[in-house]
Amino acid sequence: MRALLLENVHPDAVTFLAGAGIEVRTEPGALEGADLIAAVRDVQLLGIRSKTQLTPEVLDAAPGLLAVGAFCIGTNQIDLASATAAGVAVFNAPYSNTRSVVELAIAEMIALTRRLTEKNRALHGGVWDKSASGAHEMRGRTLGIVGYGNIGSQLSVLAEALGMHVVCFDTAEKLMLGNARACATLDELLAVSDIVTLHVDGRPGNAGMFGAAQLARMKPGAVFLNLSRGFVLDNGALSDALASGRLAGAAIDVFPSEPLHQGDPFESALCGLPNVILTPHIAGSTEEAQQDIGRFVSAKLRDYLAEGTTTLSVNLPPIALPRSPGSCRLALLHDNTPGVLADVNGLLGDLEVNVEGQVLATHGEVGYLLTDIAADHPAELVEKIAAMPHTRRLRLA
Length: 397
Ligand SMILES: NC(=O)c1ccc[n+]([C@@H]2O[C@H](COP(=O)([O-])OP(=O)(O)OC[C@H]3O[C@@H](n4cnc5c(N)ncnc54)[C@H](O)[C@@H]3O)[C@@H](O)[C@H]2O)c1
Prior knowledge:
Layout: E1 2-5, H1 11-19, E2 23-26, H2 33-40, E3 45-48, H3 56-60, E4 67-70, H4 80-85, E5 89-91, H5 98-113, H6 116-124, E6 142-146, H7 150-161, E7 165-169, E8 181-182, H8 186-192, E9 195-198, H9 212-216, E10 223-226, H10 235-243, E11 249-252, E12 276-278, H11 287-307, E13 327-335, H12 340-350, E14 355-363, E15 366-374, H13 380-386, E16 391-396
Parallel strand pairs: 1-2, 1-3, 3-4, 4-5, 6-7, 6-9, 7-8, 9-10, 10-11, 11-12
Antiparallel strand pairs: 13-15, 13-16, 14-15
Helix pairs in contact: 1-11, 5-7
Bound molecules: nicotinamide-adenine-dinucleotide.
Nicotinamide-adenine-dinucleotide is lined by residues 73, 97-98, 101, 146-152, 169-172, 199-203, 206, 209, 227-229, 253-254, 281, 283-284.
């Protein structure tokens, strides 16, 4: 088995995959065009981050490719439909930087509520400005979390540890942790929160969900954070609310349009406003998160190769099957059409092969079937399943 890891994937991923007996080649940067096509031709595993574009042409050029590891959170850079059609499993690391985002949110909440940005700037400018005016403790203040998912719920726990009251609004039914209280509406949350922080996902319906109307419903002197997605917020309306003094401060990490390259110029209506922290989409960017991503994704790739496990796959139905001792595992990716399971088991029955374990899941266009059988099965079995009309890919794991 050969793996190619591009874009400076964390060294722990190399160590992990090499330890699983896989020959690993690394490239520091992204590849594109003919270079990428030539590089993927003879690999079974490909590791990328956000810059390598896996188009249908690239996937076509890699007939032996079994799985792609996106060593990052997003998978927009991969043509998932083509990967699925080609029987290529895709994995990412959806939770690896959750804690990093939460810690930055806590840091920014404290910095803004203590007006550290202004004190810091004044003293660097040679001005001694010692005053308690407008500075508050976190203890006893109310934090309003919009979007109570992985990040929002973990933030809730840490904020309570600081002595804050936590209220949340989520469009889905969520289990509240600790003493957090769910609000029935966003307006209810805005009316009571000293700090409002957005942690919603990037579904298209969230475009512009937070604008002038929502900012006007926040408490005067409240603080606002957006570390989720740039397009959910009207930055112009936020700039007005800050410039008028209605809001006491804001921290923004994500923007509707973000520069693509290191050192590119950046413009925003928020630049230059007092008590505003602007960061270049780094809420999840820590060395710990990168290391966790490296370990998490490489473990998913190893488990897929060794056991056929698709738990947390982005594009294949998620299944895992405890291995029957001494058995041989058939991992069959097939068209999602009725009768495939019956056909496979009919064939096994005809050849007098006993099933020792089996699990099937279907999703969208594909079905995925893991079957454990005795290691000494007739040789023709594999050929016959591979030749079945709805087989997309058959592998012995
Ligand atoms: N700035 C960064 O570096 C960084 C890093 C990681 C994640 N993120 C972003 O943070 C956000 C949250 O990530 P997560 O892992 O917690 O996602 P998640 O999917 O676990 O949680 C999102 C939550 O938002 C809720 N939601 C969606 N639309 C809503 C709405 N209009 N009103 C209220 N609730 C709504 C969902 O029901 C869900 O519970 C995502 O947008 C993600 O892209 C940013």
